[in-house]
């Protein structure tokens, strides 16, 4: 019988899974299957950081309720521009519209992580990054979307900063883990504090 992974990731994000496994954690992926749009709508009057934290907690608790004997990691990310919260674009056309709105502007990313033990969230953290998109041309945008394709719809900002998406920016303030989608350093610190990984 295969050995059980030490942690469950309540997210289908391949970026989060790669970060955790690269950091040496044994991960099993069990997506939470929540209606995130409904949760965002219920929390629409909350601050973006609070929405991200709520989504991360709901994910960890939803999977934790199904697997109460496991330690579950939930995470989510919210992009905010002038108080408006953005979701992942539905298609490439929506990604184009979103990038046109972000072009030449600074936006904020709030990335939350939650840890659930015995089905209950016992810790959460929200990290923040500010990113300024350059005033790229329409020709660049068309080429970017042609090259990125459906991958532009896999993240809330329509970019993967560790790849082609870095060309969209002229300024970045915040760590790469927060931008990619998981406050990894605070999570590892909490796991060490709880004795769940080696100190």
CATH T-level topology: Maf protein
What is the overall number of helices? 7
Which ranges are low-confidence, i.e. pLDDT below 50, for 5 or more consecutive residues? none
Q: Secondary-structure element order, as H and E?
A: EHEHHEEHEEHEHH
Category by helix and strand content: alpha/beta
**Residue share in helices?**
25-40%
Q: How big a fraction of the residues is strand?
A: 25-35%
Mean residue pLDDT: 95
Question: How many individual β-strands?
Answer: 7
- What would you call the shape? globular
Oligomeric category: single chain
- Structurally, the number of domains stands at 1
Q: What radius of gyration results from the CA coordinates? A: 17 Å
Q: What gap, in angstroms, lies between the N and C termini?
A: 29 Å
Short description:
The chain is of the alpha/beta class. It has a single domain (7-193), classed as Alpha-Beta Complex (Maf protein). The chain is built from seven helices and seven strands; from the N terminus they run βαβααββαββαβαα.
General description of the model:
- With 199 residues, this protein is an alpha/beta fold.
- It has a single domain (7-193), classed as Maf protein (Alpha-Beta Complex), CATH 3.90.950.
- It has seven helices and seven strands.
- A hairpin with a 2-residue loop joins β5 and β6 (120-133).
- The longest helix is centred in the first third of the chain and has 19 residues, at 48-66.
- It is globular.
